[in-house]
Amino acid sequence: MEHIMNQVFFGNTVYEYARALIAFIAALLVIKIVQYIVLQRLKKWSQNTSNSIDDFFVGMIEKLAIPLSYFAAFYFSFSTLQAPDSFKHGVQVLGIALITILTARFVNLLVQYGFHLYSVSQGRSADLRNSLDGILKVVKFLVWSLALILFLDNMGFKISTVIAGLGIGGIAIGLAAQAVLKDLFSYFSIIFDRPFEVGDFIIIGDYLGTVEKIGAKTTHIRSLGGEQLIFSNSDLTDSRVRNYKRMRERRVVFKLGVVYQTPIAQVREIPRIIQTVIKNTPDTRFDRAHFFSYGDFALIFEVVYYVLSADYNIYMDIQQAINFGIKEEFEKRNIEFAYPTQTLYVNKETAA
Question: Which of 76, 99, 199, 287 would be a feasible disulfide site paired with 304, CB 3.0-4.6 Å?
Fold first, then answer.
């Protein structure tokens, strides 16, 4: 038996192979015990807590630490054996590749968890989650691209030389991608700053409509006429956007005119009449009513009140009710609304 154990194969005795194998199996058993006993208990404990950070760390252990521990068990168990340089180099490449992959996964999981916390803090909006998922795809692409570049650089490839060799072609690509990158960063600004969301009614310059979709490059808006308006994200972030969906109340200013023949007593009474009508209309807050100015053919009154709702249809219903109420009160008092009139005065001169 001792003779067999002392036999040498590829620079190592059978005993050394057996010792490395036993160490590897023992390490695997320890990892399995940790995975199926300790890790399962940690999972159950994290599920019973109110916060999510412990679930995140348990998931990191399961997805990153366990795979890394398998490679560590293999590496340290067989590191004492004599092996060809090609085999050692292969193990080294495998280790670098594994560390690179796990590091990229760690960064992606960290960003994903950060997006999850942001989504929770903003009320778990489905539209926001979809937008964050789109950003996450871009982040993952960038992280894996950087991981690949770093891996190739560690393998001896001169990535910097390749990038520098692009020369004018790289500059041309950069200039061509400038508009796309500008829209992409504007997309990030819209998602995180949230000047508007899907479903909001907004006005941009002479265009107005309801936001239907916020994409990585363009935003789609459905106008009141029914057609779809498509804006680049950079156009929106560079413009003054009015968001009517977030308006808590609407300030309304309107003017009306009565004829010059209206007696002064009734002129003084008109602001009080208007105030009473508005205060008796639900969902309104009266601000003021004044005899504003002398018009070309009317005495002008300016009225200001607030509609306690952002809904446009409610505003129109309230304005209609106020108009009916004012006309009804004016008719009771024989107050006449003004309309364009012209009086012609003729001066007769008698001949001497």
Answer: 287
The domain locations on the chain are 2-165, 194-243, 250-332
CB neighbours of residue 174 within 10 Å:
11
Q: At what angle do helices 85-121 and 66-78 cross, to 10 degrees?
A: 160
The C-alpha atoms of residue 228 and residue 209 are separated, in whole angstroms, by: 9
CATH number for the domain whose boundaries are 194-243: 2.30.30.60
The first and second tokens of residue 307, run together, are: 């509609």
Query: Which uninterrupted H or E stretch holds 331?
Result: helix 312-332
Per-residue pLDDT tens for 232-265?
888 888 888 888 877 888 899 999 999 999 999 9
pTM (two decimals): 0.52
Q: Is the dihedral of CA 176, 178, 179, 184 positive or negative?
A: positive
Give how far Cα 31 sits from Cα of 38, 65, 68, 78, 92, Å. 10, 10, 11, 17, 22
Residue 255: predicted pLDDT: 95
82 secondary structure, DSSP code: -
Between residues 38 and 271, the one the model is more confident about:
271
What is the distance in angstroms between the CA of the first residue and the CA of the last residue of the chain?
A: 159
Q: In the chain, what percentage of residues exceed pLDDT 70?
A: 78
Q: Is 305 exposed, middle or buried (0-12, 13-18, 19+ CB in 10 A)?
A: buried
What pLDDT does residue 74 have? 76
Question: Where would I find the H helices in 79-177?
Answer: 85-121, 126-154, 159-165, 167-176
∠ CA 149-165-183 to the nearest 5 degrees?
65
Topology (CATH level 3) of domain 250-332: Alpha-Beta Plaits (3.30.70)
3 state DSSP class of 294: strand
Can you read off the two tokens belonging to residue 178? 């400038």
How many C-beta atoms lie closer than 10 Å to residue 233's C-beta? 23
Tokens of 248: 């808590």
pLDDT digits (tens, 9 = 90+) for 315-343: 999 999 999 999 999 999 999 998 876 66
Q: How far apart are CA 236 and CA 232, in angstroms?
A: 7
